[in-house]
Design a protein that fits this description.
Structural class: mainly alpha
Largest sheet: none
Order of helices and strands: HHHHHHH
Shape: elongated
Distance between the termini: 47 Å
Length: 109
């Protein structure tokens, strides 16, 4: 469970920001009185259904709730040219990436 400490801290932070108690959250999520407390105290982990409810309640993504980087790129939100370039870059080896970086740096200076 050590990897999950971040999102458990995030749960506490989000709850406190809304000035709610752990008991309030238990009622909102229709959980037993100690279940939510166990999530924040790193005793048990919420299942995916509960994580989705929490993300919806706090209006955050699941990625944010569980501590994944917020700056990931979703290609469906890019235009055709941007998505094409990103796909190409993701397939490059280290040498190709270094050459591309040098080239782009030269273009933008």
């Amino acid at each position: 469970m050590e990897d999950n400490i971040f999102y458990l801290k995030k749960l506490r932070e989000l709850r406190q920001k809304r000035k709610l108690t752990q008991e309030d959250m238990s009622k909102i999520l229709n959980l037993g009185s100690t279940t939510y407390k166990n999530y924040e105290n790193n005793i048990t982990e919420p299942n995916i259904e509960t994580l989705i409810k929490l993300a919806n309640f706090y209006n955050v993504s699941l990625d944010e709730l569980v501590g994944r980087e917020a700056d990931t790129i979703n290609l469906k939100y890019l235009d055709e040219n941007e998505a094409y370039l990103i796909r190409k870059i993701l397939k490059m080896n280290d040498l190709e990436l270094a050459k591309t970086r040098a080239y782009v740096t030269g273009l933008t200076e």
